[in-house]
Structure formats: C-alpha cells, structure tokens
Design a protein that fits this description.
single chain, about 270 residues, two-stranded antiparallel ribbon
C-alpha cells in the first residue's frame, strides 16, 4: 500500500515537472527577442490563428432595399449577432465566413459606395497554441490517473477522483475557450451601418416663381382666414362690452352736464350777491 502511494506521488511529481519543462521549451521555440527588445514570432508556429474584424458604412436613398440586399448576402451557415433598424438608419453585426470575407465586402461595394471602411487583424496563434498544449497535458494526466485508479486503494481512489474532477473542470473551460477561438477565427465579425440620404432637387427659376406666387396666395388666404376667426371669437365679447361701455359713457356724460349746471348756478348766485 505504501509502495503504491509512493508511486502515485512520484508520478504526479514527474507530470508536474514535465509540464513545467515543456512550457519552458515551448516558450523558447515560439518567441525570440531581437536586439531592440521586440518579441518576434518564429516560423515554427504551424498554423497562424488570426481574427479579422471589419467596420464599414454607406448611405442609400432606399433603406428598405439596402437592408434586404445585405441580409440576402448571408449564406445558410452565416448569421448576425445584432440587428437594429430605425426610420432613417440600420446597424448590423454579421458573422461571415473568413474565407469569403473579401467577397462579402466586394458585393456590398459593387452595389453601394462605402463612406468608411476599416479592417483589423488580431493574431491569437500563441494563445491558441498554449490552450491546445494545456488541453493535451490535462488529457494525458487524466489517462495516467485512470490507469492508476484500477489498482489503487480506497483512499487513493478518492484522491484520484478528486483530481480527475478538477481536470474535467479545467478541460471544460479550456475546450470552451478553444471553441470560442475557432468561431472567431472561422467567422469574421462585420459591423455595418446603413444611413438614409436625403436628396434635394434644385428647381428652375420659373418653378420657384410659381411656387412663390402660390405660397403667397395661400399665405393671404391663411391671413384672412385667421382674421375671420379672430373676429368671430371677439363677437361674444363685443355683445357684452359694447353696450356696457356705451352705458358707462352716457352716465359719465350726464354727470358731467349736471356738474356743469351746478357750477353755472353757483356762479350766478355769486354775481347777484355782489
């Protein structure tokens, strides 16, 4: 029993040391430092993994036709991650096969004039290779543990199962990362903005003259129309205010005459007393 545990411990130690050693060897084989301190990727990388991303925009007088056109360019195994359509614009995030990315863009260029265009490339070869190496290492370790499990004691079985569970979790995360890498490499991201353009036609002098006359006539009609509405609106007020104002004027005039008459009488009395 003790001998088996020693063998198990020795095997795990050897696997750990070999993993560290292989990591150092891979690092030395993959990167190199030039005299300026810039890290260079050597030719030993077997397959470069590059993620392409395109961002472009164009204007159109018919937004609906443009949306239908670009959506029709997608193949059955291509799709869009985002689609926003508004009254005067539309925005898409397409996932297009990388091997036909240029064809997809050229089809749009043949139909519309692009007002902006940018294409970026991100090399993930090192990350991709490192992830693949880690997956291989975990798989080899798992295979060795399964062999040891067949002749292990109950205590060792528990230890081995615990480690296998940890390896399975790591493998699941790494496989998810690899699938994401493969998707980004095989299907490029295309961000496309479509905007509606407004075309203004320049009218001739005669057409503008006629339009000016017509607009002036309608403005005059609108003026009298508004004036008539104002008059009709003021009629109820006039029915009440005009008689009231006239009555107030009559009363004020009579009062003025009465005061004038009293003033004349007072003046005559003063003259008689003299």
């Amino acid at each position: 029993m003790k001998k088996l545990r020693l063998w198990l411990f020795a095997l795990l130690l050897v696997i750990t040391l070999s993993a560290c050693s292989s990591a150092e060897i891979d690092y030395e084989n993959v990167v190199d430092e030039d005299d300026d301190g810039v890290t260079m990727l050597l030719d030993s990388v077997p397959d470069r993994k590059i993620i392409y991303r395109v961002s472009t925009e164009f204007y159109t007088t018919n937004l609906d036709d443009a949306v239908t056109f670009v959506e029709g360019l997608l193949l059955e195994d291509e799709w869009f991650d985002q689609e926003n359509i508004y009254d005067s614009s539309a925005f898409f995030v397409f996932r297009v096969k990388t091997d036909r990315l240029d064809t997809f863009i050229n089809q749009i260029k043949a139909e519309y004039t692009l007002t902006s265009y940018s294409k970026t490339a991100t090399d993930i070869s090192l990350n991709y290779q490192d992830t693949a190496n880690r997956i291989t290492g975990y798989q080899e370790e798992r295979a060795r543990l399964i062999v040891l499990y067949e002749s292990a004691s109950l205590t060792d079985m528990i230890t081995i199962n615990t480690r296998i569970s940890q390896i399975d979790i790591e493998l699941g995360e790494l496989m998810g990362t690899m699938n994401e890498f493969d998707s980004l490499v095989d299907y490029s991201r295309v961000e496309l903005s479509i905007r509606r353009s407004h075309v203004s036609n320049t009218l001739s002098f005669g057409a503008r003259l006629i339009n000016g006359f017509v607009n002036g006539f309608f403005s005059l009609v609108s003026f009298f129309d508004g004036l008539l509405i104002v008059i009709v609106t003021l009629i109820p007020w006039a029915v009440v205010l005009v008689p009231s104002g006239y009555g107030i004027y009559i009363l004020a005039h009579k009062r003025t005459l009465k005061l004038e008459k009293l003033r004349q009488e007072r003046k005559l009395k003063q003259q008689e007393m003299k």
